[in-house]
Amino acid sequence: MRKLAILLNIGLMCMIGYLLYEKGMPGKHEVFLFVLVISTPAINLLALLLSKKEVSPGLISLYIERKKLEEAQRINNIKKNL
């Protein structure tokens, strides 16, 4: 999902560059909208690239971790009973 957001932001910035090339700079009444449209994907892209990747563990790794902890608990219980 993160890679898709980065690709879409880059695509939007390319589209804005193309429109700027074809149509030129906007008029005085469109400046606020132009600044908003330029700054939003740029800031969003920076936030995506500079943020840490938070990878959530998958179901299989959670299952293996649980089994490992259960086995360790079983071993500790056996050691206590000896």
Structure description:
The chain has 82 residues and is mainly alpha-helical. It has one domain. Helices cover 79% and strands 0% of the residues. It contains three helices and no strands. It has helices at residues 2-23, 31-50, 59-81. Helix 1 (2-23) packs antiparallel against helix 2. The longest helix has 23 residues, at 59-81. The model has no long low-confidence stretch (mean pLDDT 86).
SSE topology:
Blueprint: H1 2-23, H2 31-50, H3 59-81
Helix pairs in contact: 1-2
The tally of structural domains comes to 1
The helix/strand series, from N terminus to C terminus, equals HHH
Helix coverage percent of residues? Answer: over 70%
Average pLDDT level: 86
Quick structural gist:
With 82 residues, the protein is mainly α. 79% of the residues lie in helices and 0% in strands.
Give me some keywords for this one:
82 residues, mainly alpha, 0% strand, rod-shaped, 3 helices
